[in-house]
Specification:
The chain is α/β, with parallel strands linked by helices. Helix content is 32%, strand content 23%. The protein has 9 helices and 14 strands. Helix 2 (73-82) packs parallel to helix 4 and helix 4 (104-110) runs parallel beside helix 5. The chain crosses the membrane at residues 6-27. Keywords: Membrane, Transmembrane, Transmembrane helix.
Length: 293
C-alpha cells in the first residue's frame, strides 16, 4: 500500500473512532443530564460483589439500603459521589451481616446522614463495631426498625417497613428489615436476607406484599423465596445481588426456576453489574447502563 494511501486510511480510522467515542460520551452525558429526579424514582441496585446495596432517589431525597462488603466500600463511595450524592436522608441497615454493612462506617464518615435505621440485632464483628463507632462520632442514634414504620420520601411516595416481626430470632438473617416502597403506581419490595420463617410471618400478618419489582432475598439462596411468598409478591422484575462465581452457589437454580415460572424478568449483578431502574410512576424501565460506573 502506498504511503499516502496508508496515511489516508489511518486518518479515516482515527476519525471514525473519535466520532464513536464522542457520540458515546455525549449520549451518556445527555442521559445523566436529562434524568429528572423530581418527577421520577430512580433505583440503583449497586454491584458490590457478594453483598447487597441499593440507592433509591425520589423527590430529591436519597435512601440507601445496606452498603455491601468492606472490599467494595471505596467503589461504593465513588459511585455515590459521581452521582452527586452529598446527603443520604435515610440509611437502612437491614441486618448486621458483613456483606450488608461492610461499607457502612465509610459511608457514615463520608456523607451527611439524616436518619439511620436498623433492627435491634447485634453482631460481634469488626465491621459492626466500626459502624457503631462511626455513628457515635457523628452523634447519630439508631432508630429501631419495626413493622408499619414509615419513612418520608416526599409526595406520591410511601415507604413502609414490614419486618422484623419478632424481637428475637435464632437466625440473624430473619431480623432483616423488609421495605415496601410505592411511587405513584410503581411498587417495590426490598427483602434484605429474610428466610422462609420471616417470609411466613409477613404472609401471616396479611401485609400487601404485591410488588412489580422484587429485590430477591438472601442473594437468591434456597433458604428464601418460597413458592408461596413469591406468589404473593408476583413480581414482574426481580433483582438478585450476588458476586461472580461466589462460594455459596448464589443464585440457586431452584429459585431461578421459581422466578421463571412467574414469567418474571431476572437481572443479576454478577452478570449485569450495577442495575438502574427508572419509574415515572406508571412505567418502569431499565437504563442500558449505570449513570456512572
Amino acid at each position: 500500500m502506498p504511503k499516502k494511501t496508508w496515511l489516508r486510511y489511518a486518518l479515516i480510522c482515527v476519525s471514525i473512532i473519535f466520532v464513536i467515542v464522542c457520540t458515546t460520551i455525549t449520549y451518556r452525558s445527555t442521559i445523566k443530564t436529562n434524568l429528572d429526579l423530581e418527577n421520577n424514582m430512580v433505583t440503583h441496585f449497586i454491584d458490590v460483589g457478594q453483598g447487597d446495596c441499593t440507592l433509591i432517589q425520589v423527590n430529591n431525597k436519597n435512601l440507601l439500603i445496606d452498603s455491601g462488603t468492606s472490599d467494595s466500600k471505596q467503589k461504593l463511595i465513588r459511585y455515590l459521589k459521581k452521582n452527586n450524592i452529598t446527603k443520604l436522608d435515610y440509611i437502612v441497615a437491614t441486618h448486621p451481616h458483613a456483606d450488608h454493612i461492610g461499607g457502612m462506617a465509610s459511608i457514615i464518615k463520608n456523607f451527611e446522614i439524616g436518619e439511620f435505621w436498623a433492627p435491634k440485632a447485634l453482631e460481634s464483628t469488626g465491621v459492626f463495631n466500626d459502624m457503631i463507632d462511626a455513628l457515635r462520632a457523628k452523634n447519630l442514634k439508631i432508630k429501631i426498625a419495626s413493622p408499619n414504620t414509615s419513612l418520608n420520601l416526599g409526595p406520591n411516595t410511601t415507604c413502609i417497613m414490614l419486618s422484623p416481626n419478632k424481637t428475637t430470632y435464632d437466625n440473624l438473617n430473619n431480623y432483616s428489615c423488609t421495605l415496601k416502597i410505592s411511587y405513584k403506581n410503581s411498587t417495590y419490595l426490598f427483602t434484605g436476607d429474610i428466610e422462609t420463617q420471616a417470609e411466613d410471618e409477613l404472609m401471616a400478618n396479611n401485609y400487601d406484599l404485591s410488588a412489580q419489582i422484587l429485590k430477591v432475598a438472601h442473594h437468591g439462596s434456597k433458604s428464601s423465596s418460597s413458592e408461596g411468598f413469591l406468589d404473593k409478591v408476583s413480581p414482574k422484575i426481580s433483582i438478585i445481588s450476588c458476586g461472580i462465581d461466589n462460594d455459596y452457589g448464589h443464585p440457586n437454580k431452584e429459585i431461578l426456576d421459581r422466578l421463571k415460572k412467574l414469567n418474571c424478568i431476572v437481572y443479576r449483578t454478577d452478570l449485569a453489574k450495577t442495575i438502574v431502574l427508572i419509574s415515572d410512576g406508571t412505567k418502569i424501565k431499565k437504563l442500558s447502563f449505570p449513570l456512572v460506573r
